[in-house]
Amino acid sequence: MQRIFSGIQPTGVPHLGNYLGAVRNWVALQADHECLYCVVDLHAITADHDPKTLAGQTRDLAAALIACGIDPQKHVLFHQSAVHAHVRLGWIFTCVARMGWLNRMTQFKDKAGKDRENVSTGLFTYPNLMAADILAYHATRVPVGDDQKQHLELANDIAQKFNHDFEADFFPNIEPLILGPAARVMSLRDGAKKMSKSDTSDQSRINLTDDAETIANKIKRAKTDPEPLPSEMEGLEGRPEARNLVGIYAALTDTTHADVLAQFGGMGFGAFKPALAELLVEKLSLIAAETRRLLADPGYVDGVLRDGARRAAAIADPIVDEAERLVGFLKV
Ligand code: AQP
């Protein structure tokens, strides 16, 4: 059975993009893989964060993941800062990766923007830690949204250089799993920007905790154009907002853009948006209710994470011990 690793940052409330691009696939992969799912709080401090809310957001996110269908008994759910193997291997990889490789990462350029001189060095070296997150478990398959593809290519470059430099066939090749028609869900306010937890506009995203009225209002106010929906795919070209809403509908119904256009082609957004809102409420309201139920007992969620961290460390520690031996550290 192949081993899966994936992570999500506790930087805010998880949203529809996280769900359709990642978490929904994580749930499905549990059927025939050994899965490790991680709330990556070490990554969350690469940007400014509030120390008063980080722990609570970590717990909330773990609860949302369980509510989405992650099974912490059969698989492993934990938070990154509780398993030190990530940082140990992350430092080794920071010494393996080359400046030129990291300089090419588009997510760093997007996140740093014009403020390059002032962002944390952690934001720059983030992909090294992400490579360590996966390779500390010798995981071979990583379900992610389309935005993370470049980081996984870098992880493979790091693994290959490590194997070459230390003359060992030690780290495996990683395969990104980018699944479904909503691998990149875009902002509801701007079809050129991805939906993101840290977007300052709450109207830009559907949070997994939004109630029915909030969802309906956000969809109603979502940016669109005045044209009706086309009947063919070509008609979506140059219409990023329309394409995004059609993609969301397709993902939620397990169909394709073409199927949705076959159903709604020729109709205006006045008809399509309420249908989409209804579908979203149907699919997301159970997740929100289950998250609330789980969070009524924070001790239960903390217990799940504690147990997950113990089981994760039992896999990662021997692998990272061996990586340290290969690097040449004295082991006493
Ligand atoms: N808009 C998206 N569409 C599809 N997939 C997405 N993912 C994130 N946004 C979208 C996928 O969700 C997983 C977890 O992401 P993350 O929280 O670790 O980091 P992120 O990609 O930086 O997500 P956000 O929401 O944009 O967070 P902030 O605002 O904190 O940076 C990943 O698999 C990601 O691909």
| CATH fold annotation of the largest domain | Rossmann fold
Q: Over all CA atoms, what is the radius of gyration?
A: 21 Å
Helix content: 40-55%
- Going by helix content, strand content and strand pairing, the class is mainly alpha
Distance between the termini: 34 Å
H-E order = EHEHHEHHHHEHEHHHHH
Average predicted confidence as pLDDT: 95
Top-tier CATH class of the largest domain: Alpha Beta
CATH architecture of the largest domain: 3-Layer(aba) Sandwich
Q: Helix count, per DSSP?
A: 13
Q: Order the strands across the largest sheet as they lie in space.
A: 1-2-3
Shape: globular
User: Main β-sheet: number of strands, strand sense, barrel status?
Assistant: 3 strands, parallel
* Low-confidence region ranges: none
Q: Report the CATH superfamily of the largest domain.
A: HUPs
Counted up, domains total 2
| Strand tally | 5
Describe this structure in words.
With about 325 residues, this protein is mostly helical. The protein folds into two domains: about 5-185 and about 295-325, Rossmann fold; about 200-295, Tyrosyl-Transfer RNA Synthetase, CATH 1.10.240.10. It has 13 helices and five strands. It has helices at about 15-30, 40-45, 55-70, 85-95, 100-105, 105-110, 120-135, 150-165, 210-220, 240-250, 255-265, 270-295, 300-325; strands at about 5-10, 35-40, 75-80, 140-145, 175. The strands form two sheets. Strands 1-2-3 form a three-stranded parallel sheet. The protein has a two-stranded parallel ribbon with strand order 4-5. The mean pLDDT is about 95. Adenosine-5'-tetraphosphate binds near residues 11, 17, 21 and 198.
